[in-house]
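Dock magnesium ion; give full complex structure.
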Amino acid sequence: MSDTERLFPDNAGLDRAAELLRSGELVAFPTETVYGLGGNATDDRAVGGIFAAKGRPSFNPLIVHVPDIDAALAIAEFDVGAERLADAFWPGALTLVLPLRAEAGIAPLVTAGLPTIALRVPDHPVARALLQRAGCPVAAPSANPSGRISPTTADHVLAGLGGRIAAVLDGGACPVGVESTIVGTYPQPTLLRPGGLPAEAIEACLGAPLAAHGGGISAPGQMASHYAPDSPIRLNVTDARPGERLLGFGPMESDLNLSPSGDLTEAAANLFRHLHALDATAAPIAVAPIPEHGLGRAINDRLRRAAAPRD
Ligand code: TXA
Ligand code: MG
């Protein structure tokens, strides 16, 4: 493939991106969580291209993005709990895994043969404008090579996938900074991946605790080693060893700090950007302790995977 186009989210750029998606090309676009690598979810060839561009094992199903709840209702079956969560949190950083409607015309590769589909309405003006113009559901995993750090800027996307996709729509930095929270509602509401919407908010909406994920499908966000920088990484470090770069949290001496004031929302927004920056120095990385509540659960989940032993 020739060079990847960098498009800007004006009318011309959005039209071009939508036209590329409709014609089966791959376009990376900003969401409130991370950049997604988008392809037409009803086009087998486009979806195959997503797996090829990422180098992703093809048994991992993808999240499908739609502009609104009506579009989601045409693709999946919502029970009462799913409807309540969609009403409360869409558009937003919540992905629901629901029974797929066979007649929706979703390419089988999207769901990797599962009878369920992961759906989300993103809360980002550029993503929503693109989805409205494209007029097709858009399958989009994070726009990084498989197993690598997720992208929160267009430059991250180009560094990882430049030359392998048609275009990236540059909408600046992603405000949330970690991927969506994934919840399955059948047979009972279950947290499949902690993410940008705190699990506590979901439990408050349902009035019941979420069940924990007990194995089941193997997916990239659930693999032990994922989101991995090149450099080795140590967690819960209070003082770094000589030569290590310290990623701090809260008021402390550090090379980069996720949030000097100890704010978890700010820390999530900075997480992947700081990991990309530290990784570029090639020095080992040490990370300060992060509290395990709210967005801290998503941050610690990503950090544990980044630190897990690699193959
Ligand atoms: O924030 C996000 O969710 C980003 C942006 C681009 O929207 N997308 C993202 O997609 O993180 P991806 O492909 O990297 O993560 C897909 C996750 C996998 O970890 C997989 O577990 C889950 O979605 N998933 C997809 N379909 C599923 C299904 N039918 N059952 C269970 N899990 C599913
Ligand atoms: Mg990913």
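Observed: The first helix runs from residue 11 to 22.
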